[in-house]
Amino acid sequence: MTGPTAHPTDPETYATLHADATALLEGWQPTSPDAAVARDRTLRLLGAGPIAMSRQHRPGHVTASALVLDATGSRVLLCLHVKFGLWVQLGGHCEPTDQTLVAAALREATEESGIAGLRIDPVPIDVDVHQVQCQGGSLHHDVRFAVLAPPAAVEQVSDEAEELGWFPLDQLPEPLAGGTVQMVAPALAALRRSPLRLAP
């Protein structure tokens, strides 16, 4: 069952998204040794079936996030997360209406930035597994993508952020979430090789 009437606690709600995530990660060339380990852990998690895409799955669940760069690739958009008190990339839980991980990451980036016209590279730039407080303690298996903002993009703070800010790539803010900085180099590489051309 998929679509707006789907119920998030029904494992089959996420069947299409689960199939997409499995195929995407099975065919992905990891960008670092740590990403390779996280990818393998995430594929093992996906062995639990579609429920692994849901935040209800306490052993862990797949999330999708995006490192948003400006049109020149010289700055990154980060949010100061209300719950964590850390600067992080945009992203979060998959929803029953998401059909692909790419769509989930783009939806999250659009919702949290308030920027229309974001463009996403469909090849992941990183996978990271980290502890979170969901369901009283769980793991996020976060699949990350590079996203390019249109020229003159103006962000709007959402309910999940205390603040949004653009930062030069060599001057990231503190306190910074541990897994964010490792996304910068593969994001730049992705945007240079993909159709999402950086502005001159």
UniProtKB/TrEMBL annotation:
Residues 59-189 form the Nudix hydrolase domain. InterPro entries: NUDIX_hydrolase-like_dom_sf (IPR015797), NUDIX_hydrolase_dom (IPR000086). Signal peptide: none annotated. It comes from the Bacteria. SUPFAM superfamilies: Nudix. PROSITE patterns: NUDIX (PS51462). Pfam families: NUDIX (PF00293). Belongs to the Nudix hydrolase family. This is NUDIX domain-containing protein. It comes from Micromonospora zamorensis.
